[in-house]
């Protein structure tokens, strides 16, 4: 994933996000759509949206803020 992105996100947010949330962040950073992510992780689209909401809450983001963009600016 993107030049050590996983290592950097684990260092910065590994104490805040769980393994599934970190995986989701990596997929978002790799430009996967919500539908594509649901296929990869074998979960419903609704579950993916719920996980994205939890990630935003844990990281103190706005409700509709783009997670990949947010992380790109901070990692």
From TrEMBL:
- Record GO biological process: regulation of DNA-templated transcription
Check the record and name the Gene3D superfamilies matching this protein: Winged helix-like DNA-binding domain superfamily/Winged helix DNA-binding domain
Q: Which domain of life is it from?
A: Bacteria
Question: For this protein, what is any one GO molecular function term?
Answer: DNA binding
According to UniProt, the name of this protein is Tetratricopeptide repeat protein
Tell me the organism. Bacteroides uniformis
